[in-house]
């Protein structure tokens, strides 16, 4: 059984009445939209052809010209214009196009004569309203560079030639990308660390660098090293090495114009907080003019936010030029 579902909205209150005699032309004001195949096609299959009223319809359509080697025409390759319909699993060649290829095989009454390559088929084409659609059999053309044997039903219609989903994929005109992702819910920081382990092995950096501007008339000051408790020296040395490995500080063995004293204190967790005491340097630094925003200034930007990140050691994340 071959069925189709049309994605358009139809007027169910005024359905089209089916006639006992199959119509010769089923396109008229409508457009063929869907031909869906539920299992393998045989000569006794049924196709449901959905027609959509095209009045005021500006739906975008895609057409292409398919190179095809047709029977009884030698090695000549013809280009057949087709509409791509990914909702269709059957291909249609109009009698109008067939007549352009085989002008001596179609009579004035659109009857095919003396065409042994046209295969008669019991396949039924049925419109959306239930009306059967008459076809004159099927033909097989070798299409594309790979000479894919494309089966097309011959239908007397004013509409375009239709290339269904299977034909589009066989000729490499479309590609279907399906991907299913399962994301683990993030409950705490440990979940983030397990999902992004490489993002937690370093402190990271803000973009750009900051350059401290000093008054040209200032005189550099070199502070002497301070004395620290003996019981804290090993811990202090270990923290300095850690900061050096993280790239926060750099060991300097050459003379410099400015030397600032080192200061440290205990944090709430018992670890050391190390910083400089640049009291003389601060006096000659040229201040940048910047207004620090208040909570009222930025709280409206949090609308729709799901996560809040607190930057610890923010001064470490901003690079300074020498």
Automatic annotation (TrEMBL):
Coiled coil: none annotated. It comes from the Eukaryota. Residues 1-26 are annotated as: Disordered. Signal peptide: none annotated. InterPro entries: DNA/RNA_pol_sf (IPR043502), Retrovirus_Pol_polyprotein (IPR050951). Residues 7-19 have a biased composition (Basic residues). This is Uncharacterized protein. It comes from Elysia marginata. The lineage of its organism: Eukaryota, Metazoa, Spiralia, Lophotrochozoa, Mollusca.
